[in-house]
Sequence to fold (158 residues):
Amino acid sequence: MAEEKNKLNQTNNNQQEEWEERVVEIKRTSKKTKGGNRIGFTALVVVGDGKGKVGFALEKARDVASAIKKAMRKAKKNTIVIPLKESRTIPHQVEVKFKAARVMMKPGRKGTGLIAGSVVRTIAEVAGIEDLTAKILGTNNKYANVQAVFKGFSLLKK
Fold:
């Protein structure tokens, strides 16, 4: 009986360890109330397994740690699978627009590396993409850029 519990705990630990988690952005928010200012935080988080499976979430809480935990939990539930070519790059070029954010992503030759800025680089690293060229146009809003990148990844076909 005790051995079975240990095995279950080990499998749960292995499942938790396989996700790479990155905090993209933390913002401090403030709300005016009768008693004064009520401070809160929002956390934008990206998770990936290094094999093409990635997810993201934006969550709010009264403190930073709680916001990050909530976002991690939600991001692991809302994942997509990126079809990887030779398990190192995307299969074809994609250009996506989400609101004001525009993202262009191109597959890279072997050895190219990640030529991408901020959000695209973070998502590609946790997804396990090694060779990619990308450009973010339009806005610096990280949430809109993450949405655009995920929209682009969901449009990829093998």
Summary: Helices lie at 2-17, 64-77, 118-127, 142-155. The chain has a mean pLDDT of 90. The longest helix spans residues 2-17.
